[in-house]
Amino acid sequence: MRDLPYRDNVGAVLFNDAGLILVARRADLPNAEGAPGGWQLPQGGMDEGEDPAIAVFRELEEEIGTARAEILAEHPRWLTYDLPEHLVGKALGGRYRGQRQKWFALRFRGTDADIRLDLDPHPEFDAWRWARLGELPGLAVAFKRAIYEDLAREFARFAG
């Protein structure tokens, strides 16, 4: 596992005007309403050579149907996580040990009606909601929890 690389990835902590964040339920975990890991932030892989600030808007458009947002802050570090042993060789196309992520705090500049999970023929998410930033770590799968804790600390100044 340690000889596999990390996949470069971007993530969005999307705040509305009330200081709540958008979380979305993974379509492959539809019965995980209250279970950790069923809900997550929009994130996705970067194309080779792609600027992270451009990639985050592309990922928002692909995953939630809109990129009506503006960047408030960029996390000062790349954050990494390793997949649990049972997912190595299966998740992320089987080619990566985990992900190296650049996270952004963004202010949503649209309306709830702009968020469209039904535009992709194979959507990653099947539901979304606004949540308090402090809820974020409790929504994460165990192997992503430390990253979500870091994001909650780093971007607390934007929360309501």
TrEMBL record:
Its EC number is 3.6.1.-. Its cofactor is Mg(2+); a divalent metal cation. Belongs to the Nudix hydrolase family. RppH subfamily. Accelerates the degradation of transcripts by removing pyrophosphate from the 5'-end of triphosphorylated RNA, leading to a more labile monophosphorylated state that can stimulate subsequent ribonuclease cleavage. This is RNA pyrophosphohydrolase. GO terms for molecular function: bis(5'-adenosyl)-pentaphosphatase activity; guanosine-3',5'-bis(diphosphate) 3'-diphosphatase activity. Keywords: Hydrolase. The keyword Hydrolase applies. It holds the Pfam family NUDIX. SUPFAM superfamilies: Nudix (SSF55811). Residues 5-153 form the Nudix hydrolase domain. PANTHER family: NUDIX HYDROLASE 26, CHLOROPLASTIC (PTHR11839:SF22), UDP/ADP-SUGAR PYROPHOSPHATASE (PTHR11839). It comes from the Bacteria. Gene3D superfamilies: Nucleoside Triphosphate Pyrophosphohydrolase. It comes from Neoroseomonas soli. A motif (Nudix box) lies at residues 44-65. One of its GO terms (biological process) is nucleoside phosphate metabolic process. The gene is rppH.
